[in-house]
Amino acid sequence: MPYKGKLKGSAIQSATAIALENEFKEYMQYNERCIAHQSALSAFRARKCLQKIKALLQKRKLELLVLYTKDQKRLNEYYSNMFSARVNPDAKDE
Fold first, then answer.
1. What are the domain boundaries of the chain?
2. What pLDDT, in 10s, does the model give residues 13-26?
C-alpha cells in the first residue's frame, strides 16, 4: 500500500454518499420487515434496494478514486476498464 496515513483534505460528503446512506437505511427497514413478517413484498423491495446500493457504490467508488488518487496510471486504467465494458456489451454476439 503506497499511500498510508490520513487524507490531507477533509472527506467530501457528496449527494451520492447521502443517497447511499438513505438507501441503506431503507434496505434495513425492508429487511427487518421481511424477517419479522415473512413478507414476500418486503423481500422484493429489500432486493431492489440492494441493487440500487450496488449502483451507488460503484458511483461513489469512482468519485473517491478521482478525488483522492495520486496514481495517474491507476486512474487511467480504471477509466479504460470502465468504458471498454460499456462501449460494446453485445460484442460476443457478432
1. 15-86
2. 888 889 999 999 99
In sequence order, the 6+-apart residues with CB closer than 8 A to the CB of 19 are 56
Could you tell me if residue 77 is left (phi over 0), alpha (psi between -120 and 50 degrees) or otherwise beta?
alpha
Q: Alpha helix (H) ranges present in 38-71?
A: 40-68
Cβ atoms of 75 and 66 within 8 Å: the answer is yes
- CA 91/CA 53 separation, integer angstroms: 28
| Residue 76 cell numbers, joined | 487511467
Residues 6+ apart with CB under 8 A from 7: 68
pLDDT in tens, 12-68: 788 888 999 999 999 999 999 999 999 999 999 999 999 999 999 988 888 887 777
